[in-house]
## 1
Amino acid sequence: MYLVILLELPGLVLISTFYYLDQLGDDGWIPLLIMIAVIGGTFLLIASLKLETRMDRYSFSYRNPPFVASWRKLNPEEITSIQVEKKDGILDHGGYGIRFGRKKTGYIYFANHLIRVVTQKKTLEFTTRKPEEFQKMITQWNTENS
């Protein structure tokens, strides 16, 4: 998020400076408002991103508002394997955000642990800050399904 602010702030300062020095002409307020709207919208979008994951005896659920607003569920029967790993999002996945691929989708945010869920169709990867809780549930799933 700080990177976005650092990239957009100089543009806003430049447009504001041109506006106040009367270098943009009579309609100089239009580019200034457009720049403020774009920066504000980008900031609000990034601030509203969050990844929510839940796991209980019956399913693994996730959502990623505002892109995936409703809960998506995976039943234990659909999941081929599930594991928790310690990984770095920037180095292993090329940065933070949602990564789409034909066989793999990653929801990578600011956390050092990764939940890898493998189904027959696709591999899903989610970052988490609660690896111990998910590991306990995975162990419970494995004992119930064995």
## 2
Amino acid sequence: MSNPAKTSTISNARAVRLLRMLQLLNEGAQKRSTLLARLNIDDRGFFRDLERLRALGVQLQVTRGEYRLEESIEEAYAKLPFPNPQLSVHEVRQLCQGDTDAHRKLKSMLDAFLATPPQPAPTSRNKRAAASKRSKPSS
């Protein structure tokens, strides 16, 4: 099964909110009003974050108005994407040194990034041709 965390990007603020929601749900069943107050979010933000967690594959249950985590916190953490750590290529290379699955995953991502060919700069002729295509009416 594919892990959505592998391809999802997430802002730091949202990552913190989702992490905090998981931690609160790990404490036991929680009413929405309690979660709203403790997370300092409105209904819309709550339902967005709840949907995001579900889309990531986190097992959540709602029973009689109480939300609960239906898997271990470690299983939920494994599905939560990590926000962009703002590392340089050099720093990522340093982190790739190791023999774990995480090291190999990061090395594979770095290799793919470094192998990306540069895109040619558009020439004046190419710009005119593209503009001409856009201005022609479709038949």
